[in-house]
Amino acid sequence: MKLLNRVSHYDDVQLQFWRSDFPILKTKVHGKQLVYLDNAATTQKPLTVIETEQEYYRNYNANVHRGIHTLSQTATEAFEAARTKVQHLINAASPNEIIFVRGTTEGVNLVAQSYGRSRFQANDEIILSQMEHHSNIVPWQILCQQTGARLRIIPVNTIGELQMEVFESLLNEHTRLVAVTHVSNALGTINPVNEIIDQAHQRNIPVLLDGAQAIAHLPVDVQELDCDFYVFSGHKLYGPTGVGVLFGKAALLDAMPPYQGGGDMIRSVSFENTSYNTLPYKFEAGTPNIAGVIALGDAVDYVTSIGFEAIGEHEQALLSYATQRMGRIPGLRIIGTAVKKIGILSFVLEGIHPHDIGTILNNQGVAIRTGHHCTMPLMERLGLPGTARASFALYNTRKEVDALVEAIYKAKEVFKL
Ligand code: ALA
C-alpha cells in the first residue's frame, strides 16, 4: 500500500489529509461540490486501492494457485497475503477460516446452502431479526422452502433496538441457527451481539453475524465475539465491489459440504469420484476476483493504518453534530435513535416523499440513499414506505453536514413547507 498521508489521530488538518486520499471527493455534481453521504451503500476508494487493482492487471496479471511461472506465483503470493491481512483485521485464528466470496450476500447464501441445507429439516427454526437486510432474509427463506424449516423473528422496538427479552423466549430446542446483523444498515443501530452469542451458545446454537455495515466502523474480533460465521463486503470497507469475506470457525467449515463445484476446490476428479480440497479452497471454486481480493487487502491496510479508534471518534462526533442539527429542522423526524449507533441518520420529512428529498438533495450535490434500504420488513414495522438516509465515513466533515442541512431546507422551500 502506498500511503499518501499517514495519520494517527483525528483533527481538521488530518481530516483534510484523509480526504486527499480519495480522488472522487473532488467531483462536482450539478456544478456543486459533491457531498457524498451514501457510504452505507458503498464507500469511496482511496487512490492506493485503485492503484493496487490496476497494478495487478498492468504488472502481474495471471491466475492463482495454478501456474509455476513467475507472474502466477506473484499473483498467488499477493492473493494469499490479502487473506492474511483479512485474518488479522478480524482476528481469525487461521487464514483457512477466511473464504473469499463475491460479497455479504454470497457469504450468507453459502452458509444457508452448505451448512443449513445439509443439516436442517422440517420444524427446525432459524432466528433472524426484524431489521435484517433482504440478503440476510431471502437466503433463509429459500432454505426453509427446501427443508421445511421456519423463521422466527426478533422484533424491533420503536427506537430501533432489538427486543432482547423476546429473543430469549424464541430460543428453544428447535432453534438451529441465529443470523442477525451486527449493525443495521437502515438505522445504524449497533446490536448487542455479545449477548446474542452468549445466549445462543448456552444452548449450543451457532450464530452468523452480518457484518456488512459494521466492518468499516467498528473493530471486529471474531475470537472475542466467538461468533460462528461473520460475513462482510469489501466495497463497504473502502475496497472494490465484487469481493467479500465469509469467516467461519474451521471445525464448522471443515464439516460443511462444498457450495459450488469447479476448479480449485478439488483435490482429484474422476467420473466415479471427486475428492475436495482443504480449507479455504474447498469453498473457492473457479477463478476468483484476484484483483479485487488483492485490492481488498490494500483497503484493509488503509483502514488499519488510520485505526478504528480514530475512525470511530470522528464518525461519532459527526453523528452527534448531525443529530443535533437535523433534530432542529421543523417537520424532520429521525428514524432510529438507538443508544448505540454508527454514523447513519435515517429521516423522514413531513410532506415530502423520501425520493423527492433525494432528488432535490442531488441537485445540491448531496448524495444520500432513499427508499426501503432493502429492509422492507423493518419499514413495515416502522409504518414507513421508506426513509432518506445519510451515512458517514471517515472522510466526511461537519461542513458536509451543514451542506446536508442546507439542502434539506432547500427541499422544504421547494415544497413550500
Ligand atoms: N446494503 C446497502 C445499503 O444499505 C446497499 O445501502
What is the gist of this entry?
By secondary structure, the protein is α/β, with parallel strands linked by helices. It has helices at 12-20, 47-59, 70-90, 104-119, 138-147, 164-170, 193-202, 222-225, 250-255, 290-306, 308-327, 354-363, 376-382, 398-414; strands spanning 28-29, 32-33, 35-36, 98-101, 125-129, 150-154, 175-181, 207-210, 229-233, 244-248, 266-269, 274-276, 332-335, 344-349, 366-367, 369-371, 387-391.
Describe what this molecule looks like in 3D:
With 417 residues, the chain is α/β, with parallel strands linked by helices. The protein has two domains: 12-45 and 307-414, Alpha-Beta Complex (Aspartate Aminotransferase, domain 1), CATH 3.90.1150.10; 51-304, Type I PLP-dependent aspartate aminotransferase-like (Major domain) (Aspartate Aminotransferase, domain 2), CATH 3.40.640.10. It is built from 14 helices and 17 strands. The chain has a seven-stranded mixed sheet with strand order 4-10-9-8-7-5-6, with helices on both faces. The model is unreliable at 4-9 (pLDDT under 50). Bound molecules: alanine. Alanine binds at residues 40-41, 133, 185, 369, 373-374.
Spatial gap, N to C terminus:
49 Å
Q: Which residue ranges are poorly predicted, with pLDDT under 50 across at least 5 consecutive positions?
A: 4-9
Q: Architecture of the largest domain, CATH level 2? A: 3-Layer(aba) Sandwich
**Relative strand content:** 15-25%
Structural class: alpha/beta
| Average pLDDT level | 96
What compounds sit in this structure? alanine
Q: What is the number of beta strands?
A: 17
How many domain modules?
A: 2
What do we call the CATH homologous superfamily of the largest domain?
Answer: Type I PLP-dependent aspartate aminotransferase-like (Major domain)
Strand order of the largest sheet: 4-10-9-8-7-5-6
The CATH C-level name of the largest domain is: Alpha Beta
Rg from C-alpha positions?
A: 22 Å
Shape: globular
**How does the major sheet shape up?**
7 strands, mixed
